[in-house]
Specification:
By secondary structure, the chain is an alpha+beta fold. It has 5 helices and 7 strands, in the order H-E-E-E-E-E-E-E-H-H-H-H. The site of nickel (II) ion has 5 residues, from helix 2.
């Protein structure tokens, strides 16, 4: 596997994005180092969330930080205000209410599709020390959690798109496929 410092964000249709990630079993310094790198890559690309699978690390981990200013915040880690690390996460409750909003993904740089998500979720996960915690999320964080959890199951943006959005982005997706093949 690639060195952590050399990780880059995989782009659709890299087949690793379709893998189902495995639970984290060891909570050690290496895990912390990998999580730090996820935050770094997320911030560099001005993302609000990044799943381990997006760098080819196929364990059930994702990070999130909503509403920061990438010009101002030069480094994000698990202790940064508003930052979250979710290890072995599970959504235990989805609200009945849902919201349609624009949603992007660092593995699909040019796509912002209208996607329907639960307005609120309750998530249960472990932190870097392996301790369980529960969090109720709404707004962007709720959307982010649902999106990143999809990555851990190999589910991607196009799978969530309604038919009209899939039609709209058909060419963009095909172009990404061509580019990927060209880079092989
Ligand atoms: Ni994504």
């Amino acid at each position: 596997m690639t060195k952590v410092s050399e990780w880059t964000i995989l782009k659709f249709p890299d087949p690793r994005l379709r893998e189902v990630s495995k639970p984290v079993e060891v909570f050690d310094d290496e895990l912390r180092e990998k999580v730090d790198r996820l935050f770094e890559l997320m911030r560099e690309q001005r993302g609000v969330g990044l799943a381990a699978a997006q760098v080819g690390w196929l364990e059930r981990v994702f990070v999130a930080c909503c509403g920061y200013d990438p010009e101002e915040v030069k480094r994000i880690d698990a202790n940064t205000e508003g930052a979250h690390v979710f290890i072995n996460p599970e959504i235990t409750v989805h609200s009945d209410e849902s919201v349609v909003d624009s949603e992007g993904c660092l593995s699909f740089p040019k796509i912002y599709a209208q996607i329907k998500r639960s307005a609120k979720v309750m998530v249960r996960a472990q932190n870097l020390a392996g301790e369980f915690f529960q969090l109720e999320a709404e707004d962007l964080l709720s959307r982010c959690i649902q999106h990143e959890l999809d990555h851990l199951n190999g589910d991607l943006l196009p799978d969530r798109m309604p038919k009209d959005e899939r039609t709209k982005y058909k060419k963009a997706l095909r172009d990404m496929e061509k580019e990927f093949k060209g880079n092989l």
